[in-house]
């Protein structure tokens, strides 16, 4: 880089740092503000006087969550779903990408199979047919619907195919000549060589499953089965008192809904797992994205 | 070199993936037939009465359909434009920044919102923009009357676009930053020797260096003209802003699943899928033609 020392250039640098600092703060402040509201007194939050620090610091809302059985229920559903979903899609993605990365002479129907894959990635029947299909399978209110209904992560398969194709062919031939079978070659050679790209797609799958709320809302009829994001949505965002009855249970929920500090605490806990894995995620994803997505 | 008997293992590896594909992508495609039926869930897809194109005719008669179509395209096009300009501008600013440590900090903070769900972020955004939230607080200290941002139909589409840009600009920057690092540094040296100042170097070296990437991403984004972002709008909107915020996907959910108009909602969804499919296919074709981009 060429260095410049003129006064104009230095002033430019200062302005640049100021602008970028403000932009970066704008990305983090709303999250910080939520944490501060969750730590503040109810009345201060309701009056809207909380800014960058908590007013009347207390942990009441977090103690309240500790007693909220439904919250933990949903938290557990989300964890279960992330574990099942991420491992299943890892296995299936790798198993699919390996044969499809071969040439047509090794796998004759490769082009047809590839075409089916791309077509289903770009075209789908929409919400109602999916709902009717899932219902016909009898999967409503089943944890597996959360894992399976999003379909195969087709874009990940294509990413891994591209990566596998970039590996040197001689390597695989040498393994096969030495008597290794295709399964051994895949698990002992290809997978270890693809750690960056596999780590990236796995982390994205984990984040995707953790963040998904809609299948929980559509396919689960009992709040007991809601994953965390669906539960949060129902508690925090959907404020529609007209739809509520006046029985005790609904009134209790209504008073909870207006409880800003409790809602803020729920939102904060729901994003905590992402904040915890984010440092690991960040190390991988920039590398992983540039590897697979845009090629010159 | 050709190895015998590998194909069998390849097909075995493909089996789980294609079973998943058939069950959750291809079988639901038959549900498209619902669009041509007076669908009764009790009778099922095969035994409901056929009505031909009646659902489509009804759809074009509805006043709703013009509104939701306009909203969808309006929001999506604004998103495409804003999501192109802001990340490029941000990447250029980061590129000009000379403090490496500060740069890393800024990057870490601006990528973060991408990984949080719209459920979480909507909860936060609704709170921040609420009547007693910090934005109204700041505005009122300048003497502006507090406004209910989330209840103003004229404002809502812009809030949707703005919050989407806020969530994604950091992440979208990654690709431009990768393109920027691949510009040959000697071009800058040569330009500096010729007496070009920072602005001239930006205009004549940096911008031409990343313009192929900008062009490619623009073409690819054209396939999304009908995708205004279901998760986001669904979590942010409320009945007050249906008139300007309702998009095809949210409408299908409300009319189809909540009001049980299966045939009509499937027809609307199908039309969106078909048009979307054509748009995406065209944009991929153009990307391949002009920039040699291939997905596999």
UniProtKB/TrEMBL annotation, chain A:
Stored PROSITE patterns: ABC_TM1, PROKAR_LIPOPROTEIN
Ranges that cross the membrane: 12-32, 44-62, 82-100, 112-131, 143-164, 184-207, 262-281
Domain ABC transmembrane type-1: 75-281
Keyword vocabulary terms for this entry: Cell membrane, Membrane, Transmembrane, Transmembrane helix, Transport
Alphabetical list of Pfam families matching this protein: BPD_transp_1
Membrane topology, from the record: Multi-pass membrane protein
Localization terms from the record: Cell membrane
Similarity comment: Belongs to the binding-protein-dependent transport system permease family.
Name by which UniProt lists this protein: Carbohydrate ABC transporter permease
Organism: Paenibacillus hexagrammi
UniProtKB/TrEMBL annotation, chain B:
Recorded superkingdom: Bacteria
Protein's cellular compartments: Cell membrane
SUPFAM superfamilies for the chain: MetI-like
Lineage: Bacteria, Bacillati, Bacillota, Bacilli, Bacillales
Organism of origin: Paenibacillus hexagrammi
Segments passing through the bilayer: 12-36, 68-94, 115-133, 174-193, 205-226, 262-287
CDD domains, sorted: TM_PBP2
Entry similarity comment: Belongs to the binding-protein-dependent transport system permease family.
Domain ABC transmembrane type-1 as annotated: residue spans: 69-283
Membrane topology of this protein: Multi-pass membrane protein
Pfam families in alphabetical order: BPD_transp_1 (PF00528)
Primary location: membrane
Gene3D superfamilies documented for this protein: MetI-like
Protein's name in the database: ABC transporter permease subunit
InterPro entries, sorted: MetI-like, MetI-like_sf, UgpAE/MalFG_permease
Keywords tagged on the record: Cell membrane, Membrane, Transmembrane, Transmembrane helix, Transport
């Amino acid at each position: 880089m060429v260095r410049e020392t003129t006064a104009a250039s230095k002033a430019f640098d200062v302005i640049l740092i100021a602008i970028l600092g403000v932009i970066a703060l704008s990305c983090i402040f709303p999250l910080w503000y939520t944490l501060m509201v969750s730590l503040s007194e109810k009345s201060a939050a309701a009056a809207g006087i909380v800014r960058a620090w908590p007013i009347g610091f207390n942990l009441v809302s977090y103690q309240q969550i500790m007693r909220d059985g439904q919250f933990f229920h949903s938290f557990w559903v989300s964890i279960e779903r992330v574990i099942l979903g991420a491992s299943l899609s890892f296995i299936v993605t790798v198993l699919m990408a390996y044969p499809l990365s071969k040439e047509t002479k090794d796998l004759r129907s490769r082009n047809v199979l590839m075409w089916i894959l791309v077509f289903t990635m770009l075209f789908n029947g929409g919400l109602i047919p999916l709902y009717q299909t899932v219902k016909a399978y009898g999967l409503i209110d089943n944890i597996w619907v959360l894992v399976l209904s999003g379909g195969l992560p087709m874009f990940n398969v294509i990413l891994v195919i591209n990566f596998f194709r970039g590996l040197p062919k001689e390597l695989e031939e040498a393994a096969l000549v030495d008597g290794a079978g295709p399964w051994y070659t895949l698990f002992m050679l290809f997978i270890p060589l693809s750690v960056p790209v596999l780590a990236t797609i796995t982390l994205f799958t984990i984040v995707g499953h953790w963040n998904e709320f809609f299948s929980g809302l559509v396919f689960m009829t009992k709040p007991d089965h809601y994953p965390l994001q669906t539960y949060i949505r129902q508690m925090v965002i959907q404020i529609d008192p007209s739809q509520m009855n006046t029985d005790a249970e609904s009134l209790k929920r209504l008073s909870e809904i207006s409880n800003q500090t409790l809602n803020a605490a729920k939102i904060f806990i729901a994003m905590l797992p992402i904040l915890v894995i984010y440092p690991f995620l960040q190390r991988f994803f920039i590398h992983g994205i540039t590897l697979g997505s845009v090629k010159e | 070199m050709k190895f015998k008997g590998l194909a069998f293992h390849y097909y075995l590896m493909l089996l789980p993936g294609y079973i998943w594909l058939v069950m959750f992508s291809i079988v639901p495609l038959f549900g498209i037939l619902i669009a041509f039926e007076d669908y009764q869930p009790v009778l099922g897809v095969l035994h409901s009465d056929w009505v031909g194109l009646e659902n489509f005719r009804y759809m074009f008669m509805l006043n709703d359909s013009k509104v939701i179509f306009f909203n969808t395209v309006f929001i999506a096009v604004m998103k495409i434009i804003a999501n192109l300009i802001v990340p490029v501008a941000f990447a250029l600013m980061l590129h000009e920044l000379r403090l490496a440590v500060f740069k890393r900090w800024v990057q870490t903070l601006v990528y973060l919102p991408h990984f949080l769900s719209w459920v979480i972020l909507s909860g936060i955004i609704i709170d921040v923009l609420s009547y007693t939230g910090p934005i109204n607080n700041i505005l009122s200290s300048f003497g502006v009357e507090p406004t209910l941002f989330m209840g103003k139909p004229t404002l809502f589409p812009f809030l949707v676009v703005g919050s989407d840009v806020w969530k994604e600009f950091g992440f979208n920057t990654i690709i431009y930053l990768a393109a920027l690092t691949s510009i040959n540094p000697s071009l800058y040296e040569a330009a500096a020797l010729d007496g070009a100042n920072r602005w001239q170097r930006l205009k004549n070296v940096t911008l031409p260096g990343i313009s192929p990437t900008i062009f490619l991403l623009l073409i690819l984004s054209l396939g999304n003209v009908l995708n205004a972002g279901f998760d986001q709008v669904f979590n942010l909107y409320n009945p007050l802003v249906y008139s300007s915020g309702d998009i095809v996907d949210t409408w299908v959910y409300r009319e189809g699943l909540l009001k049980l108009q299966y045939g009509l909602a499937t027809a609307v969804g199908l039309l969106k899928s078909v048009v979307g499919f054509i748009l995406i296919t065209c944009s991929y074709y153009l990307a391949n033609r002009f920039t040699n981009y291939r997905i596999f």
